[in-house]
Design a protein that fits this description.
The chain is mostly helical. The chain contains 20 helices and four strands.
Length: 488
Amino acid sequence: MDSQAGFLAQLNDWINYIDGVVWGPVMLVLILGTGLYLTLGLGFMPIRRIPSAIRLMFQGRVTGAGDKGEITPFQSLMTALAATIGTGNIAGVATAIALGGPGAVFWMWMTALVGMATKYAEAVLAIRFREVDAQGRYVGGPMYYIKNGLGPRFAWLGWLFALFATIAAFGIGNMVQANSLSDVFEHSTGAPTWLTGIVLAAIVFLVIIGGLKRIASWSDKLVPLMAIVYVAGALAIILINIQHIPAAFVFIFKNAFTDTAATGGFAGAAVMMGVRFGVARGIFSNEAGLGSAAIAHAAAQTKDPARLGMVAMLGTFIDTIVVCTMTALVIVTVYVPVEVNGVMQDMPAWMSGQTGASLSALAFGHGLPQIGQWIVTFGLVTFVFSTLLGWSYYGERAAEYLFGPKVITPYRILWVIAVYVGATLKLEMVWNFSDVMNALMAIPNLIALILLSGTIFSLTKMSPAARGDLDAPPPEIPTQATPAEMGK
């Protein structure tokens, strides 16, 4: 047992080391720099067209004649949101604040603002270079726009993305989610982890066995419900503490550029820690730059890549600017009793020394006594379940790209087993492992976005929707790879 514990400790140290390397200055510059470059190249269109994108989102419940794909644009957005709105919005935000200080929230916002352009670009390329597989399904994502957009010389880069995505799915989209949920249930209800694991795995199996259309059908009902309930609860707490909100924003901005001193149970954090954890947890939450959401958007029914891209970019806005901000403001403004030098004092929740979902539950519980903790529990249950569904599809498509359709059934079985394993084991290294996989996914995707930026900009200029004219007919743009582009 001692040797096993020593091996696990050494493995965890290696993962921590790799995590620090891959999320170092180079990665932060690559993610933020790519987003900023695309934002400037698009003339700030993703930010300027948010109202138009919201209108397109509601119009996307119904598709037009001749639109090709498997699911509606609204369902593709809900499927993408199902995957992104997860523990990152509850535990991830809390972890970023607990380790990087309140200033980490500012860097989450910056990641989201430039990430809207990144998510837009990913969806545009996903539609432009998608394919129809042997079973007649529309498939796409970074591995396809790398292969079809950049040509055979870069096929290895698409293969690497698919490999990292297949592995990452079991971290960010599976075991992290199941582990967080079973931990909350164990502490709030006393339910044993094995029971949570069995129930969760069984329900996930019943949904994912039906493929994308069943996942999308669940997502377009579950995602709006869970977001409304969670945001409504957070808004109620924010309104109760409205007098602290202006100071909270000032404090967040100030701490984004200055070190955060140790206070209460908070250990203190340097500016670089705030940047690192803010960007890393922001990417973990909204996935802008990972390329994962493009896999869902590739199946959307549309003729205009830019029009679908505008719907897709709302995923980042809703996930981080709306949902994550709600969590952050509750943690920063709600006061809880904290023991300092043997004396109990009322201090903001972020100073309590708690982290992860426990910190969010603590803040919500004191912000709305009796029901606050149950809002967090409801959020975690629905957020985790939806993420397990969305990421099962991402990982499945990536695995199919590597091994062909024969891998689908074994993959789904392995996915369900991993849900149970994640729920029952105390995987201390799973968060850092997920961060590493996120970075490895992001690198080939970001390279492709930069190299294909000319295609993104030209498709945007051709689209009336991108200019704000939502009623004009879409341009005649090929939205599937031609045989020549596929190298056939």
